[in-house]
């Protein structure tokens, strides 16, 4: 018999809630969600992407690959930056992505090619928030539930490798 211990460390920033509310209100003033977060329209937005699957199921008969896991996206939005000394040293805040179905913050558009669902963006919940650093760097952590087509041939089973693209 083995004993397992799970330790969870949570960073909690104590600060004046009124200062946080003022910061969030200032950040969202005149923010236009439909504009890409670039100063020059010819610039590209660099998006970091990491997906860590926790459950993966290959349904050979249906030829579907089902993945669930944690997704992390990062990008920069200069419009959501501030000087910490103007807001009691606050280095980060959380902002909602949507409110009552309306987008509040620009986010990259994600599409799952070969999706089983006809709603290509349905694998990402809309009810998440993002962490915004004072530099304008945005961290979006969310759960993803994806299902895509994956052709399966069992001709050489069990001596083959499977690759779902």
UniProtKB/TrEMBL annotation:
Membrane spanning residue stretches: none
Domain of life: Eukaryota
InterPro entries on file: Neur_chan_lig-bd, Neur_chan_lig-bd_sf, Neur_channel
One matching Pfam family: Neur_chan_LBD
Gene Ontology CC terms: membrane
Domain spans labelled Neurotransmitter-gated ion-channel ligand-binding: 22-161
GO molecular function: extracellular ligand-gated monoatomic ion channel activity; transmembrane signaling receptor activity
Descriptive protein name: Neurotransmitter-gated ion-channel ligand-binding domain-containing protein
Species: Stichopus japonicus (Sea cucumber)
Organism taxonomic ancestry: Eukaryota, Metazoa, Echinodermata, Eleutherozoa, Echinozoa
């Amino acid at each position: 018999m083995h004993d397992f211990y799970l330790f969870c460390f949570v960073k909690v920033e104590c600060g004046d809630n009124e200062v946080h509310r003022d910061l969030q209100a200032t950040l969202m003033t005149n923010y236009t969600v439909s504009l890409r977060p670039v100063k020059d329209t010819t610039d590209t937005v660099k998006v970091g992407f990491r997906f860590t699957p926790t459950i993966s199921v290959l349904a050979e008969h249906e030829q579907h690959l089902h993945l669930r896991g944690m997704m992390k996206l990062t990008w920069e939005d200069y419009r959501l930056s501030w000087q910490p000394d103007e807001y009691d040293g606050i280095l980060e805040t959380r902002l909602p992505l949507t409110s009552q179905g309306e987008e509040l913050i620009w986010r990259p558009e994600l599409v799952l090619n070969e999706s089983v669902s006809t709603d290509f963006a349905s694998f990402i919940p809309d009810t998440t928030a993002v962490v915004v650093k004072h530099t304008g760097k945005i961290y979006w952590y969310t759960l993803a539930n994806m299902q895509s087509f994956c052709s399966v041939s069992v001709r050489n089973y069990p001596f083959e490798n499977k690759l779902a693209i």
